[in-house]
Amino acid sequence: MKNESLLPVDSGERKDLPVFTGVLQYFPLALLEVARVSKIGNDKHNPGEPLHWAREKSKDHGDCIVRHQIEFDKIDADNGGEFHAAAVAWRALAQLQLLEEARKGSKSDTLREQFLRPKTCSQCHGHGVIEVSYGRYDECFDCNGKGLLPA
Length: 151
Prior knowledge:
The protein is an alpha+beta fold.
């Protein structure tokens, strides 16, 4: 039977991942604010929908991190009155999540090549913005095509 857990099977390896004592106990107030930013963002970008990460709505995590970091110690009125630093943390987690998914889901390319290599849509033959999802290119935003080929 395949291990469906995100955690390693080996107990020693699991003990090397102290999520509670090494993350939650270190940063409880910060993580509460990141959770609040997540809820505020969902309500803003997905009104009336259950809490979920609408990955296709914003992919410029690096630019957003830097923009929020410039004003990290100021209150972000557009983000429910939280510090900009809370948005930095949310965006950094989103960026890291995508990188880890890509690393675990694709072994054929380096991450940088995978994220930067242009793709050509087999339907419209354009180079539309391509959504990165679980480490692969899967949608052309020029035509919403699904069949993509390497450029």
